[in-house]
Amino acid sequence: MAKIKYVEHDGTEHDVDVKPGMSVMEGAIRNNVPGIDADCGGACACATCHVYVDEAWRDKTGTPSAMEESMLDFAENVEPNSRLSCQIKVTDELDGLTVRMPESQH
Amino acid sequence: MADASTQVVILGAGHAGGSAAAFLRQYGFDGPITLVGDEPIAPYQRPPLSKAWLKGEANADDLMLKDESWYAENNCRLLLGVTGAAIDRAGKTVTLSTGETVPYDVLVIATGARARKLTIAGADLEGVLELRTAADAEKLKAAIGPGRRLAVVGGGYVGLEAAASGRALGAEVVIVERESRCLARVACEPLSTFFQDYHRQHGVVFELAAGVEAFEGERGHITGVRLTGGRVIACDAVLVGVGAMPNEEIAREAGLPCDNGVLVDLEARTSDPSIFAIGDVTHRPLPLYERTHRLESVPNALEQAKLVASAIAGRPLPAAEVPWFWSDQYDLKLQIAGLPFEADTIVVRGEPASAKFAVFHLKGELLQSVEAVNAAPEFMMGKQLIARRTPISRERLADPAVSMKEVAA
To answer: What mean pLDDT value characterizes chain B?
Structure first.
């Protein structure tokens, strides 16, 4: 299990144990963490699972694919550490990861 | 706002019903919820059934909307393998197929849609399949191994996605379509042509403008699809994907107005203030287009699930969304935003031959919809432009050298 900290836009924190193999998005949805919508269920088709990856974890979470990058490019409030959480696979390596949510996914 | 004594009953535990229960809890509603589903498993995602799941890239657990434990932990009584039999609006109760009568303060009808069936000879043969549920998908998966011959009746999204997955698994696939092109009812001609070409390059055979006369079989199992004129397409299984019909009967029998779906308003409420309806079963207003429509899509189910949860929990209603859809076939990601109502002009941006292009549909200078193939910027920006309802230049739109951000500027 990897412990992931999801921080809502208002600062509310959710510490959740996520099974390796799931995506960071699935970890939030399965545990009813608000702030990540994931309308398409992880198909990289909607950009409603936008998160900001804590600086310390940017390398370990990898780089976005071309598709993810172009989806993100048109999402709201994008920052250099923005990712689509459906595209980050959870591994034991990500134990302790912190991600923050934008104000809105739509 | 509803309080902790408010009893919510949700009929239907698909994407809409399951999500409504989850949003209610997320929005702080703490009354009891009864969620009634006719399938034997907890709410799950249907889109992967014709895509990742069918190809073996996702397992059953990956599809679940919530962990099984979520329902008990959240005071949500999940009844599986159960349907609603009748609604007593005066007494505010629902009678279930088990005979149990459940009282409600708020009822949510989320009964979805069912596959349209062909009423032709042989339709009840073994091996005649449809694809709505996980159980349907299990049967289809068992039928499309290497060398197996799958016939698909209906060149819509379900048929095309199943064909792509079937080819990935080594099955031979023939698509039989009544119209002269695939996706005839749901996409424009350039897109149909592109998808037909792409599927053909991957070995799919199309029988277009072809009627189906009967399914032929031996010893109770399908052996072929007989076309009008007599020619027979031999197959080991046939997937019938010719559209869906709303499961609106229980609403209609309760006197709720229906017209190709249960009629609902902007907050997903029916004509009865205590009864909402969400998802595929609804015929809903589309404020951006000033008309009503029945949508069959996950984004629609989620939008209405949020509407009903907001209404019950006393939250402000979220803004109307642009309807959208997606489809994955081979290495293609098709994303569609909006609907081409009253569109008079088509603008193609990019080269279909490059498998990276978009088709825009305009009504005058207003963007009504965009169909984007491997073209995320066109989809994302197009969706925003549809919502914005401001005039855009079709010359700039047609020029891939002008970025989508510049088009929108």
So the answer is: 96
CA angle at B372 for the pair B368 and B376, rounded to the nearest 5°: 110
E strand segments, B321-384: 324-329, 332-338, 345-349, 357-363, 366-373
Closest by Cα among A7, A12, A46 to A24:
A7
Phi, psi of B224, rounded to the nearest 5 degrees: -175, 165
Residues ≥6 apart with Cβ < 8 Å to B134: B39, B41, B44, B49, B60, B63
pLDDT tens-digit readout, B324-335: 999 999 999 999
At residue B300, the 3 state secondary structure works out as helix
Per-residue pLDDT reduced to its tens digit, A21-58 = 999 999 999 888 988 988 898 889 999 999 999 999 99
CB-count burial class (<10 Å; 0-12, 13-18, 19+) for B396: middle
pLDDT attached to residue B101: 98
Q: In angstroms, what separates the C-alpha of B44 from chain A's closest C-alpha? A: 10
**Which chain B residue is nearest to residue A66, measuring alpha carbons?**
B376
Read off the pLDDT of each residue in A7-22 and give the average, rounded to a whole number: 94
CB A71 to CB B376 under 8 A?
yes
Question: Which residues in chain B have their CB less than 8 angstroms from residue A45's CB?
Answer: 326, 333, 335
Average pLDDT over residues B256-274: 97
Domain that holds residue A64: 2-100
- Tell me whether 0.85 is exceeded by the ipTM: yes
- Burial class from Cβ neighbours inside 10 Å (0-12, 13-18, 19+) for residue B22 reads buried
Give me the domains of chain B, ranges plus CATH numbers.
8-114+244-313 (3.50.50.60), 128-240 (3.50.50.60), 331-408 (3.30.390.30)
How many domains does chain A fold into?
1
Chain A contact for B129 (CB, 8 A cutoff): no
- Under a CB-based contact definition with an 8 Å cutoff, are residues B326 and B333 in contact? yes
User: Does A15 map to a domain?
Assistant: yes
Whichever domain contains A6, its CATH number is: 3.10.20.30
**pLDDT recorded at residue B68:** 87
pTM: 0.95
Q: Say whether residue A39 is in contact with chain B using an 8 A CB cutoff.
A: yes
Cβ of A44 and B333 within 8 Å?
A: yes
How far does CA B151 lie from the centroid of its chain? 21
Nearest-angstrom CA–CA distance, B125 and B216: 8
pLDDT score of A106 more than 80: no
Non-local CB neighbours of B263 within 8 Å, separated by 6+ positions: B256, B257, B270, B271, B282, B283, B292
A106 within some domain: no
Q: CA–CA distance from B105 to each of B7, B34, B89, B92 (Å)?
A: 5, 11, 10, 7
